[in-house]
């Protein structure tokens, strides 16, 4: 198969790939059963070692809409938990399934699965990345602002985590002006990710900035995006320190008042009202969080359809 076999990292997708996924997802939003025989009599493994509400529901529904059968595998149910290698597991799953959707801790495990599996492997969240979330987010951005995003500023506020990384990398790919406002120090975005996003932006015409000043970042922004302060796998021993560092980055009405008139509030969910976001913002009129969750299914369906047909090109 030529082109892109897997979606292991956000940066694997070219802008043309993202455009094709968005267009295909728009089709699946209008007609969920378009191409409903494309995975007929086929199975897709969904292997998760971390909890999930949206990604699991979206993935299982997407497979069913394409005519296939999802096989959900919990981390502790596979022999991998008893020491079978990733390499051997990848070979076995490849014999039974047409694709593998994986959510786990280490990005290197996902990279390794991609290397050894002969079928498409899709990253459904690691400690470092969350590419399928960003596809849904960009569906919503496209629906709200259209294709012409010149002069618009897309701002992430909060922990420099997997979603912040994906926000910068996908924004750079799309030629957007993206900003991450995080605390300074250990909760900032990884400098290697910033450098990668900046190099992508150089080619796409986008702009990548980071700051430790949430208010300056929010000034005139068209999107304010945030995520939980404690991610899955974060050390509980850091909770108090983290919450103290992140408190100035809470998204509240005061911060939203600095944004553009037509701005929206985004959050991948799950949310903690009163921590990273005020209830008045997430439940308010600028919030598009339910639409983001809705598009998890349309975009994963598009991704599965295109990857299993070898229709993505990659970088
Ligand atoms: N946004 C997201 O990935 O949600 P889940 O953790 O519920 O899958
Ligand atoms: N950063 C969060 C995202 C959850 C969808 C986590 O990794 O737990």
Commentary on this structure:
The longest helix has 20 residues, at 289-308. The radius of gyration is 19 Å and the shape is globular. The chain has twelve helices and nine strands. The protein has 315 residues and is of the alpha/beta class. Strand 3, helix 4 (107-116) and strand 4 form a beta-alpha-beta unit. The chain starts with 14 loop residues before the first helix and ends in a 7-residue tail after the last helix. The strands form two sheets. The protein has a five-stranded parallel sheet with strand order 7-6-5-8-9. Strands 2-1-3-4 form a four-stranded parallel sheet, sandwiched between helices. The chain binds phosphoric acid mono(formamide)ester (CP) and norvaline (NVA). Norvaline binds next to helix 6.
**Residue windows where pLDDT falls under 50 for at least 5 positions:** none
Class from helix and strand fractions: alpha/beta
Distance between the termini: 15 Å
Mean pLDDT: 97
Q: In one word, what is the shape?
A: globular
Q: Please state how the strands of the largest beta sheet are arranged side by side.
A: 7-6-5-8-9
Compute the number of strand runs.
9
| Main beta-sheet strand count, sense and barrel state | 5 strands, parallel
* Bound ligand species: phosphoric acid mono(formamide)ester, norvaline
Elements, N to C (H/E): HEHEHEHEHEHEHEHEHHEHH
Question: Measured on Cα atoms, how large is the radius of gyration?
Answer: 19 Å
How helical, in percent, are the residues? 40-55%
Strand % is 5-15%
DSSP summary: helix tally = 12
């Amino acid at each position: 198969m030529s082109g892109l076999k897997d979606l292991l990292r956000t940066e694997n997708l070219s802008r043309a790939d993202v455009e094709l996924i968005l267009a295909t997802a728009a089709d699946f939003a209008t007609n969920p059963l378009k191409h409903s025989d494309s995975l007929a009599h086929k199975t897709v493994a969904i292997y998760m070692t971390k909890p999930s509400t949206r990604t699991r529901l979206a993935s299982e529904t997407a497979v069913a809409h394409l005519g296939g059968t999802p096989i959900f595998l919990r981390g502790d149910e596979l022999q991998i938990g008893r020491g079978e290698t990733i390499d051997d597991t990848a070979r076995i799953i490849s014999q039974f399934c047409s694709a593998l959707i994986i959510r786990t801790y280490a990005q290197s495990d996902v990279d390794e699965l991609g290397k050894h599996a002969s079928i498409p492997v899709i990253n459904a969240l690691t400690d470092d990345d969350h590419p399928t979330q960003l596809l849904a987010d960009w569906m919503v951005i496209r629906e709200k602002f259209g294709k012409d995003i010149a002069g618009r500023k897309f701002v992430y506020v909060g922990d420099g985590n997997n979603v912040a990384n994906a926000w910068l990398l996908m924004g750079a790919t799309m030629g957007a002006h993206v900003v991450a406002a995080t605390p300074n120090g250990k909760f900032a975005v990884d400098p290697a990710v910033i450098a990668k996003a900046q190099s992508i932006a150089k080619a796409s015409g986008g702009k990548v900035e980071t700051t430790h000043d949430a208010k300056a970042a929010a000034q005139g922004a068209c999107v304010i995006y945030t995520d939980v302060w404690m991610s899955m796998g974060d050390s509980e021993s850091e909770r108090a320190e983290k919450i103290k560092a992140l408190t100035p980055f809470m998204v509240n009405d005061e911060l939203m008042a600095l944004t553009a008139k037509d701005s929206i509030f985004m959050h991948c969910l799950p949310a903690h009202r009163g921590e990273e976001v005020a209830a008045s913002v997430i439940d308010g009129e600028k919030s598009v969080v339910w639409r983001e969750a809705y598009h998890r299914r349309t975009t994963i369906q598009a991704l599965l359809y295109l990857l299993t047909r070898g229709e993505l090109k990659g970088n």
